[in-house]
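Contributing new records

If you add data, match the layout below exactly. Sequence lines come first and carry their own label; structure lines follow with theirs. Keep one chain per record. Anything else will be rejected by the validation script.
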Amino acid sequence: MPSTGPARAEQRAASEAAILDAAIELYAQRGPDGVSLREVAQSASLTHALVARYFGSKQGLVSAVEDRLAAEVRSVTDALDFSSAEAFIELLTALHERPVWVRLLVRSGLGDLDGSVVPAVIAERRATASDGDRRSRLCAYAAASLLLGWLSWDGFVVPALQLDRMSRRRQDEAVAAAAMSVLQRTTQPEPRLEPRPLTAGDAAVGPPPARSARDALLAAAVELFAETGPASVSIRDIARHAGVNHGLVHRHFGSKDDLLAEAIEVGSVSLLPGAVAPGGFDIDAVVHAMHHGSPSPKTIARVLVDDIAVRNVRRRYPVLRGLLALVRQLPADARPAALADPRLAAAAAASLVVGSVIWGPALRDTFGLTDDDGVESAMADLSRWLLGAPSVRVRAGRR
């Protein structure tokens, strides 16, 4: 006898919950584009027809996952009073205890899910998205970028800067203290955060011009790995995008992991002139390259969110090691006390810039910032301050 009334409603609620839970797990692993409704139904041990009936379409299911993500982030932030670094520590701790949600969070920043989810939650904690003067909004933008950048890239920053033996708690404490210190720059004279042009460096962004099948495959891999992630891109996808036979991937690169490793290397090319500049690490040049087309920040974030072991595809860290070399030359008392360890200072500055690159468009909307506000130069100035590097003075009338 078919169920009716409350029993049917309970059955539907249970089925919807099972579908949503399955979608959350699968989307965290591979992103919505890499998962079909049939796979979600199979994981939930239900029929494809039920998924379509309850959520209408794949977009309906994606929207439901986005709503759950926003609710999850809100459940953490609503319990915190962001007037001290301790609240930021609690935030990072709570999120690190929810790895599935962190992966969905990062995917939203990368565009796999609605990228406005987190900024919307941030905006709810403010009277309006654009209250406060320009400096206040820049500092708030930077603090949010630092925390989100750390969540997106800590799996890369930790091995690159040899923080492996330091506890996660201590790492999070340093990042949280750095974020609070950035917020407190609102009422301080330094850094000045005056809009100014950043140097561009000498290298072109992206892989070299395709002069051979190998070049074409590498260019396709750099683009696709940054756009959709290694887990969702097959060797055939790369070959098809490059317009060559997929057997050439194995001939030229050996394996997908080898191709990924070289794609990361090539994607970092535009950062190298600043990282290994003759006069030392050029903060402005690296920040400019990161914000203007370098695929490296997003590719590495995708490697991490796809749960690929960084050490399998990256054994050299020239940019972060160059940054660390710079910090080791600077006096520890010139930067926030929590960043006395050069490795932590480099981790905070890197996270700040990465967060600005990945989350920038949505955060700019949240904090009411435009290109005229000098967002990128402010990130360079605040990075310099976190590292304890000498500030850049802007000549009168220079923009």
